[in-house]
Design goal:
It is built from 2 helices and 3 strands; from the N terminus they run αββαβ. The chain is flat, with a radius of gyration of 15 Å. The protein has a 3-stranded antiparallel beta sheet, covered by helices on one side. The chain is of the alpha+beta class. It has one domain.
Length: about 80
Amino acid sequence: MEFQDSKLTQTLKKKHGEDIAEKSFVICSGLDMVNINLCNVIAKDKETADVSVMLVQIYLDYYVITFTLDDAILILCSHPQP
């Protein structure tokens, strides 16, 4: 994955390392498919990102079963695969 903004890419790589695409993921949530919130997460390493994504998916499975889709639509955008 390559970011569109090269200045932002350089800043993120300088702070978080060259492997930022492997250890980052985005959580998307919202009340409908138009009004959404994005939460960008950068983990300390790929393994932590993988576990975090798994835990969020488990939480969402429970959340979606517990509540109806009218209450909330949650989408998890996992970190990109190479």
